[in-house]
Specification:
Number of strands: 0
Radius of gyration: 57 Å
Shape: rod-shaped
Largest sheet: none
Strand content: under 5%
Distance between the termini: 183 Å
Low-confidence stretches: 12-21, 26-39
Structural class: mainly alpha
Length: 184
């Protein structure tokens, strides 16, 4: 086993070339137009890695724990920053969705209110028309009842006139008959 460990600790010439592979530097961002930035706003933001990784052989045994602690601390700070960026993006998205929903709800409420108010005007107009129609019908009924009363009175007066005229005719006929009888 000890021999196996020693073989693992041996440095290979390939390892020296790969040291630069882990040397992360801040890359320049490609210039994006505003529309591409806006299109990426809904996605989770990509965080640039600013930390440089060092090969394990550079650590001292004493400073290894503090260096690892510092790196962990830096990594946690970056992770916190990443979370806050994500939360801000989600907060903005939630605000925009809420605004859009509120605008839509406001528009629907205004439409409903307008239709309600127009229906209410129509109801008032119909109610007024119904009142006017009821008044006209009442007037027509009163006129009809008055007409019927007048017709009944006229019939009674005609009957009484006819009866009076018949009585006069009978009297005249009776007097004429007496006169004729007297003449003969």
């Amino acid at each position: 086993m000890a021999a196996g460990r020693r073989q693992m600790k041996k440095k290979h010439p390939e390892d020296k070339l790969d040291n630069k592979v882990f040397d992360f530097t801040e890359e320049e961002k490609k210039g994006l137009s505003g529309s591409e930035d806006d299109a990426r706003e809904d996605e989770t933001p990509v965080v640039d890695k600013l930390a440089k990784k060092r090969p394990a052989e550079d650590f001292d045994e004493e400073g290894a724990t503090t260096a690892v602690g510092n790196e962990v601390h830096n990594m946690l700070e970056k992770f916190g920053a990443d979370i806050s960026k994500v939360m801000q993006a989600k907060k903005k998205r939630l605000e925009s969705l809420t605004k859009n929903y509120m605008k839509g709800s406001q528009h629907k409420l205004e439409t409903l209110w307008n239709s309600y108010s127009s229906q209410r005007q129509q109801q008032k107009i119909l109610q007024q028309a119904r009142v006017v129609q009821n008044q006209k019908l009442k007037t027509v009924r009163e006129l009809y009842e008055q007409f019927i009363k007048n017709m009944e009175e006229m019939e009674k007066s005609h009957d009484s006139f006819l009866q009076g005229a018949q009585q006069e005719l009978r009297k005249e006929m009776a007097t004429l008959q007496k006169k004729i009888l007297m003449d003969t």
